[in-house]
Amino acid sequence: MQRIVSSHPMPPDLRGAVIALGNFDGFHLGHRAVVAQAVAMAQTKGVPAIVATFDPHPVRHFRPDAPPFRLTSLDQRQRLFADAGADAMLVLEFGVEMASLSADQFINDMLVTRFGVGGVVTGDDFVFGARRSGNGDTLRAGALAHGFAYERVTAVMDGGQPVSSSRIREALQAGDPATATRLLTRPFAIEGVVQHGDKNGRLIGFPTANIEMGSYLRPAYGVYAVTGRLGDGRVLSGAANLGIRPQFTPAKELLEPHFFDFDGDLYGQTIEVALHAFLRGEERFDSLDALTTQIARDCGAARKALSAHA
């Protein structure tokens, strides 16, 4: 799958493509519906299907001090878009230049001139252009004026509410990964490079792979039943602490999965850790022996939770 960026010329073989426009952070049920429609339109027209995603997220541009909120990295989105049938991912580099474009300029200068679109598909709540001045009606008028196709996909509903990234974030922050999984169609997963740590887990018999949270949303701090996908495709089961490790000083925010029945070297490797079930909140224990006893209980609870999800 090709990855292209908005500041570079559109490859000739991708001009005339159908583009699904949105943020698509998380790539949940609603996003999947938009991309599925774009892929279907592209197949009908016999052209490539492209999924466009903003990076940095516009919120990060307008509110640089906002707490981390990302549900997916660009690499994760690229894999998800490819699995959904897209031929390329277009990264819309959001900065001062793009933020200043009017809705008409975005259509004329970006979609028509720079990308040469043959069709555009959005969700029904998609807005664009300076001061969020453009919407589906604006795109429909632009499509008629410039001769490209346009379709707007209605929201996917769940429990009487639209599926949204905001609902997923709220569920994760409330310690409810099951709801996030239902809306995402897969568990929320954090991908990162395994770093050397203080080796505290190894000292007490539960070695962990230490991963920084980076720009990801911070779910509820605590212990989770997890799976980890390694670079070679292997999937490991485990239990992970996500938080600031109150038992140890100095406090350091990490995701620390311990994988069952695994004794390999993961340092420097990129792994993806999926959160399946919330087991308990973070807490400080009176001694390392008490902590070790609790971790053993956590591992048993994680095995049970993961077998229920199998």
Topology of this structure?
Layout: E1 2-5, E2 18-21, H1 29-45, E3 49-54, H2 58-62, H3 74-83, E4 88-92, H4 96-100, H5 103-114, E5 119-123, H6 136-146, E6 149-153, E7 157-158, E8 161-162, H7 165-173, H8 177-184, E9 189-193, H9 200-203, E10 222-229, E11 235-243, E12 254-259, E13 270-281, H10 288-309
Parallel strand pairs: 1-4, 2-3, 2-5, 3-4, 5-6
Antiparallel strand pairs: 7-8, 9-13, 10-11, 10-13, 11-12
Tally of alpha and pi helices: 10
The structural class is: alpha/beta
Report how far apart the termini are. 30 Å
Q: Beta-strand percentage?
A: 15-25%
Order of helix and strand elements from N to C terminus = EEHEHHEHHEHEEEHHEHEEEEH
- Sheet with most strands: strand arrangement: 1-4-3-2-5-6
- Bin the helical content: 25-40%
Description:
This protein is an alpha/beta fold and 310 residues long. It is elongated, with a radius of gyration of 22 Å. The two termini are 30 Å apart. The chain is built from ten helices and 13 strands. Helix content is 33%, strand content 24%. The protein has a six-stranded parallel beta sheet, sandwiched between helices.
Observed structural traits:
310 residues; alpha/beta; six-stranded parallel β-sheet; five-stranded antiparallel β-sheet; 10 helices
Concise description?
Helices cover 33% and strands 24% of the residues.
